[in-house]
Amino acid sequence: MKTSQLERMAPLFRNVHAIGKKMRPFSDYVWMCEVDEQKGLAVGKTYRNAKQAPAFMHSIAEVERKKVEVEMSASKFISIMVDGSTDSSVMEEELLYVRSSRAGKVKVQFVGIQALEKADAEHVTDAICSMMSAVSGSEDEWKEKLVACATDGAAVMTGSKTGVKPIEQSYIKEEFLSAGHETPDAHQSRRYKTKSPDTERVNASQRNQAQGFCKWATDGATLKFCCFMHDTLTHLGNLSVTLQQSCLTVADVDSCLTSTQAVICKYKSRPGPMLSKVLDSTSYEGVRLSHSDTSQMMANKDKLLDKLSESMDNRFSDVGSGILSNTKIVSFQQWPNEYNEDFGDSEVERLIDHFRPVLISAGVDVDLIPDQWTIVKSYLYKEPTTLERLTWSEANRMLRGSCPDILDLLALVLCMPASTADCERGFNVMKIVKSDWRSSLKCETLSDLLMMHLSSPSIKDFDPSPAVQVWHASSLRSRRPDLMENRAAAVVEEVEESEGSVCSSSFEDSEPSVYAL
C-alpha cells in the first residue's frame, strides 16, 4: 500500500476507532469525516459512507484478535472464563475471556461473544470451542494448554451429568472451577414518601407514616443493629472489591476470605468501631434515643454472623480444599517470615502429580521441579525484607536461567482464574453497546465492537496503520482508496478534452471574410 494512501486512510480508521471507544452509532462516521475535511485533513472522497464503518471496525478487531493469538501461542498454559446472559433482543449470548501467565505476569484478554441457538451444555461448549479456535492456531493447541475453566454456578455449567463441566473435563487438565458470582434474590422494599410529623398541611395518613418511621429510627436497638450492619458490610464490601480484581489468584482469595471471616466472627464477642460509638450512648447526632431491649438484637446479630460465615464456607468450599488449597505457594503473603526448608514441598508434589500430563506436554521436566523449588526459596530468603514487595515477574527475571521448570509450574498456578468478574464487566459493556435502539446488531458486529472497546488502545494511543494493512490485504480484489479522486480527475480531463476539441473545430470552420470597398 502506498504511503499516500495509508496517510489518507488513517483518519478514517481513527474515526471508526473513536466511535467504538465512545459506543456511538456508525452513522456518526459520515459527519466525522466531513468535520475532518473542514479541518483541512486529506481524508479523500472514497470509503466515506456509513456502510464502510463496520468493515473498518472488523479490521481493527482483527488486529486485537491477532494479539490474543500471539499471547496464547507464547504461553504454555491458559485458562478460560465464560459466562452467559441475555441481550436487549432477548438472545442468549456467551462471553469468553482467556487468562494466561508468562514470565510471572498475568494477562486477561477478551476473546469474543457468540449467540446461542439454545442455552444448553452442548451449544455452550460448541460456542466456547468456536471462539477459542478463532484465536488459536488449531483446536488441539488450545485444548492441550487448557488447565482451568471458571464459570458461574448455573446448572448448565456445573451440572454433573448434562452440564458443560463433564464435557470439558474430557480434555481439561484441572478441576472445573465454579468461581463466578451468585445473584441474590431481589427483595422489593416499600418506599415511604413521608414528611416530618411537625410539617403543616400533611394528611393523616402521611403523618402516621412519618410518626411510625420516626419512632422506629429513634429506637436504640434499631440504631445499634444498623451500626452493626455498617461494620459488617464494610468488610464484606472490601471482600467484594478484592474478588473483582482482574489478576486475582486463588491464593489471594483464600487469604482475603480467611481474614474477612475472622473479623466478622469476632463481632460475636466484641462490637465493631461503629457499634462501639453507640453501644452505651443514649443519643445519636443530637437525637435522643428511646430505650428498648437489645437482647433480641444481639441474638439476631449472632444468627446473621453464623449464617454469613456458613454461606462463605459453602460458596468458596473448593478454595480451601482439593488441589486449589495447594496454590498458596504463589502468594508471598502466606510465606513464613523465616526460611523453612520444608515449606511448600508437599504442595509442590501434589501440584506435580495433578498436572503431570499438561506439564510434560509443555516440555517441563517435572523431575527437576522439587530441587528447583528449594533453590527458589533459598535465593528469595537471602533478603527477607524483599518478600513484602517482591513479584513473580521479578523472580522470573532473576531465576529463569537456573530454575525454569518450577517457574513454569508457578505460571500454571498463576493463570488459574479466581472469579468471572471480567465476564460481568464485559456484559455491562455489551448491554450499553447493544441497547434497545441497537437490538438488531449482528453477533459478529457486536463481537467486533466489544473487542475494540475492551482490548484496543485508547483514542490517544491508537495507531491505525496495522488495521489499515489488515483491511487492505483482506479483500480478494485490490482496494482502491483513490477511486473517487481518480474518477473526478478522469471526468475533469474528459471535459477539458471535449472543450478543447470544440474550440479547435470552431476555429477551423471559421474563414476570414473579404469585403470590397
Task: Briefly characterize the structure.
The chain contains 20 helices and seven strands. The C terminus is likely disordered.
Question: What can you see in these coordinates?
Answer:
The protein is of the alpha/beta class and 517 residues long. The protein folds into 3 domains: 1-181 and 419-507, 2-Layer Sandwich (Nucleotidyltransferase, domain 5), CATH 3.30.420.10; 204-315; 323-414, no CATH class. It contains 20 helices and 7 strands. The chain has helices at residues 3-21, 28-38, 52-74, 121-134, 139-145, 155-158, 164-168, 204-217, 220-243, 250-266, 273-278, 295-315, 345-361, 369-380, 392-399, 404-414, 421-433, 443-455, 465-473, 483-509; strands at residues 78-86, 92-102, 105-115, 146-151, 176-178, 283-284, 287-288. The chain has a 5-stranded mixed β-sheet with strand order 3-2-1-4-5, with helices on both faces. Strand 2 and strand 3 form a beta hairpin. Helix 14 (369-380) packs across helix 16 (404-414). The termini are far apart. The relative contact order is 0.15. The model is unreliable at 178-195 and 512-517 (pLDDT under 50).
CATH topology of the largest domain: Nucleotidyltransferase, domain 5
Main structural class: alpha/beta
Give the low-confidence spans.
178-195, 512-517
In total, the number of strands is 7
Number of helices: 20
CATH-level-2 architecture of the largest domain:
2-Layer Sandwich
DSSP helix fraction: 40-55%
Domain unit count: 3
How far the N terminus sits from the C terminus, by CA atoms, comes to 72 Å
Question: Any chance you could write out the topology, listing elements then pairs?
Answer:
Elements: H1 3-21, H2 28-38, H3 52-74, E1 78-86, E2 92-102, E3 105-115, H4 121-134, H5 139-145, E4 146-151, H6 155-158, H7 164-168, E5 176-178, H8 204-217, H9 220-243, H10 250-266, H11 273-278, E6 283-284, E7 287-288, H12 295-315, H13 345-361, H14 369-380, H15 392-399, H16 404-414, H17 421-433, H18 443-455, H19 465-473, H20 483-509
Parallel strand pairs: 1-4, 4-5
Antiparallel strand pairs: 1-2, 2-3, 6-7
